[in-house]
Write a structure and sequence with these properties.
Distance between the termini: 70 Å
CATH architecture of one domain: Alpha Horseshoe
Number of helices: 17
Order of helices and strands: HHHHHHHHHHHHHHHHH
Strand content: under 5%
Shape: elongated
Number of strands: 0
Structural class: mainly alpha
Oligomer: single chain
Largest sheet: none
Length: 297
């Protein structure tokens, strides 16, 4: 088959792809690859179909082959990087985004994805200056303000985090991620009444958001409002019985009520779900001390 006929197949495949007829498009992309196994467009677009189908593992070799064929394709690198993130392969994702950034250093989305990969990898001090640049160059990017605020909070820079989250909320007033993270920063600064206001706003929008229920329970516990805190923990566990954080928080509340055996049981539930949870391990040990049990399991 001639190159022209391969292009005809690809043209028809793209038309089907754009109409959402993924199965038919896939057959044509594969027909093109039968005739031209290294065809960049067929590899790239077939990889995109696999991503759309939620088959990320199948997408990676196709997209990797596309990038090998055309190393300067920012679109292919971005898609491969995002797919690697979905698979939890952060080092591979970051490599894709860094290569894309070298090709197009001023591409806002490339830099944003690069910062996200660094953030997910825990390399916060490297992600922060990228977010700084993004909000400086594009102040209207609410997501960049939000991510920047989240990173600042994780770095313990709570006042700056609140300022960044306020900027995100000025653009997206009901963004629950921004409100939740703002509440956490306010709590860290001891501004608990304000933190509860933010958590209340989140729960008025997303009543079953488990991380916010657990966060509000933590603040209520610190204020001595332990029955309310227990209610929030119970709601979170009802929604997500596998949410380890809620069991840790519930254990902390019960510990504050001097119900140490019950606290211990909750820490054990948390550790069954998340064996290396430092808070659960530490507070479990404290509960055992309160019970006079100096050895356990």
């Amino acid at each position: 088959m001639t190159a022209a006929s391969v292009q005809t197949i690809l043209r028809d495949a793209v038309g089907l792809h754009q109409m959402g007829r993924l199965g038919e498009a896939e057959k044509l992309y594969r027909a093109a690859l039968d005739k031209d196994p290294k065809n960049f467009d067929a590899l790239h677009l077939l990889g995109r179909i696999k991503v759309q189908q939620g088959r990320q593992h199948d997408a990676v070799p196709l997209l990797s082959a596309a990038v090998e064929r055309n190393p300067g394709s920012v679109d292919a690198l971005m898609l491969l990087g995002s797919t690697q993130i979905a698979l939890g392969r952060l080092a591979e994702a970051l490599s894709c985004f860094e290569r894309a950034a070298r090709a197009e250093p001023n591409n806002h989305q490339v830099q944003f994805n690069r910062a996200v990969a660094l953030e997910l990898a825990g390399r916060l001090s490297q992600a922060l200056p990228i977010y700084d640049r993004l909000v400086r160059e594009n102040p209207g990017d609410a997501q960049a303000w939000l991510n920047r605020g989240t990173v600042l909070g994780r770095l313990g820079k709570f006042e700056q985090a609140i300022e960044s989250l306020d900027a995100a909320l000025a653009r997206l007033p009901n963004n629950c991620d921004a409100l939740n993270n703002r509440g956490n920063s306010l709590n860290a600064l001891g501004r608990r009444a304000e933190a509860i206001e933010d958590f209340n706003r989140v729960l008025s929008i997303e009543p079953n958001r488990v991380d916010t229920l657990s966060n509000r329970a933590t603040v209520l516990n610190a204020l001595g409002r332990r029955d309310e805190a227990l209610s929030d923990c119970d709601r979170a566990i009802l929604v997500r019985p596998d949410y380890a954080t809620a069991f840790v928080t519930r254990g902390n509340v019960l510990h504050g009520k001097e119900r140490y055996d019950e606290a211990l049981a909750n820490y054990d539930r948390a550790l069954a779900l998340r064996p290396r949870d430092v808070g659960a391990l530490t507070n479990r040990g404290i509960s055992l001390l309160e019970l006079g049990r100096l050895t356990s399991r």
